[in-house]
Each structure stands twice: as structure tokens, then as C-alpha cells.
Amino acid sequence: MITIYDELKIAYGNHFEDLFSKLMKQKYGLRYQAISTSGRTGDMSVDGVLDYSVAFAVYAPEVYKEKNAIWKLRSDFNGFMEQRKNGQWGSIKTYYFVIKRKRTGITPLVENLIISFNRDFPVWVMTMEDLKGMSEGYLPFSEDGYLLEEFKTDVTNIMEYIIDTDFSAEPFDVKLVDGISFILEKWKKKKYSFKNQDLEMLKKEIYMNLVELVQYFSSVYMHDIENGMLMFNNDSIEAGNRLRETLRPETLRIRKKIWKLLENLYSYKQL
Questions:
Q1: Which candidate, 99, 116, 227, places its Cα nearest to that of 172?
Q2: Do the Cβ atoms of 66 and 156 come closer than 8 Å?
Q3: What whole-number percentage of the chain has pLDDT above 90?
């Protein structure tokens, strides 16, 4: 059976754009509206709108060429921003480029162009990998999808810092404690609960591992040093024993668990 993603893989131009709209309609129904051209105004640099707040611009050439892609993205974005200056698209909060190319991901030049756009307006990119995920059930613009992106934004840097830090062998930034405290305070609230039970369970696992880790940042195991850093205690026989018998094995265990949870978080697709 040929899927809509199979069709997207061989389509380009207007046909690809129509298939993208078909996919969005299948997933989001009335929440998504395709934008067609209208006389001299054209499409006003937007090919579709979701929830009156997310705009999409589709670029799917028959043959992808970097120079042409950069010109097209810059032209669409500048056109969109010009329309906003003229009072159009006022409800749009985010602008997405949907880019088709045979290879996975986007190139460094395109990524840096998107970064430059973000100085003026929030811009993201969807690739064929994202469309494949959507066709298989991933709904990035569902309520849980939005919440998942917010959760990732809050926890990713903290989790990566924890994974990369040996708390029994090196000093670490005291701001880590503040960062974890912020996560724990925010994500315990009911309004930050996922409807999907598997995802809520994953969030709770991350939460509880952070709670467990924080206990080892107390004065029993750590002390302040200069430049806003914390360091493990090892100034007595008792402190040395706690370092070797408790702090080292327990924080290593938690760091391994957090690494696995971060992998699970970024591989989660069923929303």
C-alpha cells in the first residue's frame, strides 16, 4: 500500500505542497488551512497556517541545489517579514520552512541562515524525516507535542551537563542546582502534565532522578569553592568514605540513568 509519505518522496513543486497540505489536514483537520495564491498578492510568503499561529513555507524543488535553496528561503522569509510590517499575518508566532532534499537533515549554510532569521522572528525547519514521523503517528503540533518541545527546552542542557560531569572527581557550576530547582518547581504543576501516559511517566522518571541527584549537592557531600563552583568533600576520613562508597557510585548510576532517559526523550515519536 502506497502511503502519503511514499508519494511525498517522489513529488516536488506544487504537487509536493498539495501532498503536504493533505498530510496536515489528515493529522489536524480544521486546525490547518492551506493558503492558495490570489492575483497579484500571491500567497504572501505563506503556504499554510495551523491554529492561526504557525505558518509554513514549502520548498521542494525537483533537484535540490544549495544556492537556489538559500535564495528561496531568504526570499520567503523577507517577504513574510515585509507582510508583517504591512499589518498582515499578525497572529503568526512561528514560521516553519518545509524543505525537501534527498539527504538527511539540512546543510550548515542553511542552518546558519535559519539562525540568522531567528534574530528577527522564531523560525524552524521541517525535513522529510519529520514528515515521515508525522505520517507514522508523530504529531508535533498537538497539545502534548507543544508541551514536549517546552520540556526538552527546559531539561536538555541540564541533563547533558549532568551526563558530562563526574561529581566525585571535578568541581561543577553551582548554577546547576538553580537549574534543577527551576525544573522541579515548574514541572510538578498540573498544567505541565502530559495527556499521553507513557510520556507523563517518562517526565516523572526524569523528575525523580533529578530529585535524587540533588540530595548529593548538600553540605554533607559538597562545599563551595571560588568562582561559583561546588566541590566534593574529601577533607576527613568520614568524608573520604562517603565519597568512595556513596557519592561516586550513586551519582554515576544516576548519570547513566539520565543519559538513557535523555535518549528516550529524543526518540519519543508517538504523540
A1: 227
A2: no
A3: 85
